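Attaching the record inline, Q. Sequence:
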Amino acid sequence: MRHGLYFLFFLLWDGRLLEGSNVERQLMEDLLTNYIKVLPVETPNTSLVVSFRLILFRIIELDERNQALVTNVEVVQRWNDAHLKWNASDYGGIKQTMIPYDSIWTPDIILYNSAAMDYSNRVLTTNAIVSSTGDVTLLTAAIFRSVCDVDVSYFPFDIQNCTMRFMSWTQDETRIQMKLDHNKTIELKTYIEDEEFTLESYDAKWLEVEDPCCPKPFSTVDYVIQIKRRAAFFVINYVLPMIDINVIGMTSPLSSGEKVTLGISTMLTIIFFLMSIRDVLPPSENFPLIGKFYFASICLVSMEVALAILTLFLHHLKDIRVQKMCRMLAKLSCMKEPRFRNVKGEPRENKKGKMEFTDGLPPPFLYGDKIASSRRPCWKSPVERMKKELMTGTIDTYTI
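Structure, as predicted:
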């Protein structure tokens, strides 16, 4: 008895399902039998208002080399189709149904500044949600690749502004009037943060744009995405190692004998890092900030190597060329020229009766106290006069 009641209930419930399915099938037949894919307006020469919203899921990639932004988004379009209206009471109270998008008229609104060759393969559209009042909602999931003018002047501390422009491809504002339905809270509700960039702002604006193809302007919607690069990766892997190498090279003593070799190795390392950065950045006239840092490092290391070579050269000079080189360096650095003592000559008595060399410097050995001298020390001792008998005569000498 119990099993018989269950079987009867199943038959009745299955009949209700079949009845509901038949009603919806009849609704689909009535809506699409004489349906023609034309602009669904009741009055001729009037424009159709299409509400537009772009929901951002995540930023996949910013291709600096090719200047393109890859995003994962969902496009929400809403409009009213005058040919898709019905009385819900005539169809079992059905107020909403799903219709394949290719069976009805849909606006040809696309990403105008797309940089993808396979645009159609990046867009997924399934069914349109149609209500009894004729309101149609079309949801489209897409992975867009849009053109983005990348400015690398402050790389890797740069902020990029990328614009995604949406407009109809063939119908101007007299046929399709786009309406911006921007709600930042809803559009970023499912946004996933990127590891390389942070989202600074997400704004949208409506405007009219003239196209060279047509005399009348087009209604467009622009979404501006402002992103900021996370610079920690480049600072740790490209900036800090270079600072350490430069500090080690500059503080190494010249007497170690490896300063010139270390400087040349540092220059090669900087060039290697610069070439690795070049493969990431686009060819542009704007010199990036990290490139300026590497260029300044190369100049400093080059000067360091040149001064080290000059110091070694002066260190190994032992004749009169030392004086000439020191005088030349003094002139180049706007310093007072040094005065050198002629050790080969003999002191002479000047007009005041004092002994001095030909260059005007007093002889240090005529004084008992120690005086400042950079060539040889003078000892505190009395001056003694000695005589020696030679074969040719006697010569007075001064000894200390």
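The first helix runs from residue 2 to 32. Residues 355-399 form one domain.

More tomorrow.
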